[in-house]
Design brief:
single chain; about 475 residues; alpha/beta; Aspartate Aminotransferase, domain 1; Aspartate Aminotransferase, domain 2; 2 domains; five-stranded mixed β-sheet; three-stranded antiparallel β-sheet; 16 helices; binds ligand F0G
């Protein structure tokens, strides 16, 4: 790009708008109480800027909508499946491609196919649904991030990397108990931080030596490719597509939520090279997802995803996307708000442990901060901390490694002035941080409790007067 101008603009114009609704602080106080201080339980119309997730919340392009019109809804062998399969194979080079209705369905099919009780699955960091699907098999989900990945304030280019020495140890000490290893790109639970190509290649070499297949949890493969292009020596001249192919060339399989870098509102896939695993996974898929050429999706979904994968790899799009998130990070850093540095691919993560040291982990500082952001500005983020990860499989509690509030950006949805508003809201809350109080659990299910748990202020009010 040789332009004399430095403003990075949204590389699209808006054809269809969706009004958002303003609420008063009093209305939000009532809504929050009604929702048991759980932002997942709010009505979305009570939210002004919704950064709960970047998953399935993006805006589709006119090319995707046009693709949907030619969706072939044949039960078996639909054209749409072959277009989807061709796109996935072009980008990943993987052999067997099974569509699923979303990422966790791919995880469930994979793990019920290949895991037995007592097995171990190492990863840089498992996402919560991945962990839950592994644990549901009686297996252990083992997080092996590089140490710098757990130091929010530290700036390093590839904080999403897998600790290769720890992987080597894990595979040596647990021979026969590790059916596969995984790498999540980008590392969502660890701040949306990227994984370098060198690290993926290193993991590949170790796995090959031990005869263990390597899978990518590839939800945000395009964003990861962009960071590699920007930050890894020798990669600047490569296209994101070339880099994506190089990453997948190291993998024996992949799980994917197309709700992220598939730029679609629903969908995913499981891809595997091994013929025997593919055969068993297909039979498993039919049980709950559907016939292998639609896998829980409509033909039109397959079309939207096939187009979306390439749009996610577009350089103008990636430059704008990563920069708009970094811009919010810059605003917050300048204001002294502690965030995970550097900003990640799909989200800004506020470090609630650093911001609210007066709230102990058992009163869930990041959860309290996410509620405070809603209360003050109608902004919905998500806690990635001790509510999400604190409960152990044996029922005991252990504080999470980090207490973060993730503000995840839907793709192509919000504009620069929305981002400026966010900066203002967060600075406003930061200026009142001493007044924010913790929360106590009122009720919670045993698994994936963050979705439905209910809370109450631990000391009278969430924000002291
Ligand atoms: N893996 C990663 C890294 C994810 O971030 C997600 C979803 C999944 C797997 C599961 O995919 O939702 O399609 O079933 N992450 C969303 C989020 C929910 O908000 O980060 P899914």
């Amino acid at each position: 790009m040789h332009s004399p101008f430095k403003t990075i603009i949204e590389p699209f114009r808006i054809k269809s708008v969706e009004p958002i609704r303003f609420t008063t602080r009093e209305q939000r106080v009532a809504a929050l109480e009604q929702a048991g201080y759980n932002l997942f339980l709010l009505h979305a119309e009570d939210v002004l800027i919704d950064l709960l997730t970047d998953s399935g919340t993006g805006a589709m392009s006119k090319y995707q909508w046009a693709g949907m019109m030619r969706g072939d809804e044949s039960y078996a062998g639909a054209d749409s499946f072959y277009r989807f399969e061709a796109a996935v194979r072009d980008i990943t080079g993987l052999k067997h491609i099974l569509p699923t209705h979303q990422g966790r369905a791919a995880e469930r099919v994979l793990f019920t196919t290949v895991l037995a009780a007592g097995d171990i699955v190492p990863s840089n960091t498992h996402f919560d649904t991945t962990r839950a699907n592994i644990e549901a098999r009686g297996a252990t989900a083992l997080d092996l991030p590089v140490p710098e990945g757990r130091q929010p304030q530290l700036r390093a280019p590839f904080k999403g990397n897998l600790d290769l020495a720890a992987l080597e140890r894990c595979l040596t000490e647990n021979q026969g108990r590790v059916p596969l290893a995984m790498i999540t790109i980008t590392n969502n639970s660890g701040g949306g931080q990227p994984v370098s190509l060198a690290n993926i290649r290193g993991a590949r070499a170790i796995c090959q030596k031990h005869g263990v297949p390597l899978f990518l949890d590839s939800c945000r493969f395009a964003e990861n490719a962009w960071f590699i292009k920007q930050r890894e020596p020798g990669m600047a001249e490569k296209t994101p597509l070339e880099i994506a192919r190089a990453m997948f060339a190291c993998a024996d399989g992949a799980t994917m939520s197309a709700k992220k870098d598939g730029m679609a509102n629903i969908g995913g896939f499981l891809a595997v090279n091994d013929d025997a695993w593919a055969e068993r996974a297909r039979n498993n898929l039919i049980l709950t997802e559907g016939f292998p050429t639609y896998g829980g999706l409509a033909g039109y979904d397959l079309e939207a995803i096939a187009v979306g994968f390439y749009e996610a790899l577009d350089e103008d799009y990636l430059r704008y996307r990563i920069r708009s998130i970094e811009y919010l990070g810059d605003v917050l850093t300048a204001a002294g708000v502690p965030i995970v540095q550097p900003t990640g691919g799909h989200a800004v993560y506020i470090d609630a442990k650093a911001m609210l040291p007066h709230i102990p982990p058992h009163e869930f500082p990041a959860w309290a901060l996410s509620c405070a952001l809603y209360l003050e500005g109608g902004v919905r983020g998500v806690e990635i901390g001790s509510v999400m990860f604190g409960r152990q499989p044996d029922g005991s509690e252990k504080p999470a490694a980090m207490e973060l509030v993730r503000l995840a950006f839907p793709r192509r949805v919000y504009t620069q002035s929305h981002v400026d508003y966010l900066g203002e809201v967060i600075r406003h809350v930061h200026a009142r941080k001493e007044k924010i109080r913790g929360l106590k659990l009122v009720s919670a299910p045993k698994v994936l409790r963050h979705f439905t748990a209910r809370f109450a202020p631990a000391q009278g009010a969430l924000i002291a007067p």
